[in-house]
Specification:
The protein is mainly alpha-helical. The chain has 8 helices and no strands.
């Protein structure tokens, strides 16, 4: 059964709203169809939530938000439909998070041997055993490939549908299903080996 980590939450960092005004002098001649500040107000919280879930670091989540909206601002003329803003921004965020996770895997310097920010990732007021579970879970996720980690976090932390996981990650539906199933099986096996019962 799919695991919904009810003991987890993804608090929203407080991004620097100045990203909405970044380098405005460079775009005076190119008025956007949608204001970046408006999009920031509407979607920054979702991007921050995704960043913290993926990267388990409020500092990196803040950086991700800034990077996402800077890139979105540079390509704002490509956004023709306001309703498409969230998936567009989420896609950018996942692409940037993927790059950060791959770099982390390669260097083995960032967060290796360090505790994840449980105070930021675990739900406020969580019981000690729940906080231990979150800590164990993120250690397991650290051992997964980047693509499997993305699949698992999107499906079971962000609670996206399988179809959305595929679309946001740039995968086919069959690839998304396979990666979600593989990641879930690995997470389950490691939790079971540690004597942790999963919540259905």
């Amino acid at each position: 059964a799919a695991c919904h980590m009810k003991c987890m939450t993804v608090p929203v960092p407080h991004p620097d709203s100045s990203v909405g005004r970044a380098r405005t002098s460079e775009v005076v001649s190119r008025p956007p169809q949608f204001g970046i500040e408006d999009l920031f107000r509407q979607h920054a919280a979702a991007i921050a939530s995704l960043g913290l879930a993926m990267l388990q670091s409020s500092e990196e989540a803040d950086d991700l938000v800034q990077d996402v909206f800077l890139r979105a601002w540079r390509a704002l003329d490509r956004l023709e439909n306001r309703d498409a803003a969230r998936p567009w921004l989420m896609t950018i965020a996942i692409r940037l998070a993927r790059t950060r996770l791959r770099r982390r895997k390669l260097t083995r310097l960032i967060f290796r041997g360090e505790e994840p920010e449980i105070e930021k990732v675990a739900a406020p007021g969580s019981l000690p055993e729940h906080r231990d579970l979150v800590k164990r879970l993120y250690r397991i996720l650290d051992d997964l490939s980047v693509e499997l980690r993305i699949a698992w976090v999107l499906r079971y932390v962000q609670e996206e549908t399988v179809q959305n996981v595929a679309a946001l990650s740039g995968w086919s539906l069959s690839t998304a299903k396979r990666r979600i199933q593989t990641a879930d099986a690995l997470v389950s096996a490691k939790l079971n080996a540690a004597g942790v019962k999963r919540t259905p």
